[in-house]
Amino acid sequence: MKKIQKYMMALLSLGVVAAGVVGCSDDDEYTLKSVSAKPSDKFNAKIQFVSRLTDAPLITSDADYQALKGYMVNTLNKREKSWLTVLDRTDNSRLSDVMQLSVDTYRWTASAFNKLGGMTVFEGSTLFFNEPTRLVRSVESGAGCRVTSFSPLMKGTRTDRDENGEVTATVDISFNINFYTVRFDAADQLSAFGGEEGVMNSLKRENMNLLMIGTVKNDLFGSLEQSVASADPSFKVYKVAAGSEFSVFMLAEERFWGFTGVDTESLGNGIEAYSINVMW
What we know:
single chain; seven-stranded mixed β-sheet; Lipoprotein; lipoprotein
């Protein structure tokens, strides 16, 4: 009998706890509907993107190569100041220079192929990163366009501040992310990218927290925004920087990533290095 009473008291106690958990009065200001996830500016990571933002190869002379080498070896200090660097339009006319940069900076590389420019010339970008990877994927999005993705180890920081806004601690943070890059230069590529059955929806079903940084022709930026909105309006397109022909853009779901700013350094002969700040 004592055992039965003991079990009954335990069940009654659970009932009280459950009622306290699910109970809610009209005066409660905090509800599940008011909970929203969004990036915080206390978190920061930098991604380097180097480009002419024109329809031309990045390296066209020995001077271009030396400028890139100086930037990647000295400014970025080899591996220490960059976990991901994208060199836009490293077409194979001077592919040996790109491979030498990998040796000079002690970094791994992967090719982000765009399209063939002829029987013996391909157009694309090169990704420089610090940890080896087993998988780099490429998905077609219309003629002459491919979305390249992989999962690099991101390195960022968390900055803690007191109630007066003074920094109390800066903590290093690292984890693998789902990174994508692409170049859009035709309207049909954006048609294939957006919409319910488009490439973007297929990619986001695999990785909702994807982060995409790429280029789009200036006169197609509005079409890119429309394509993304037609696929999922919770994703946002940020214009990071605009050049004479192309713009650097960032694409992400608003709950996972945010664009906080960009620092630009001119490397000469029309080559610009963009240090893109992101939060999560």
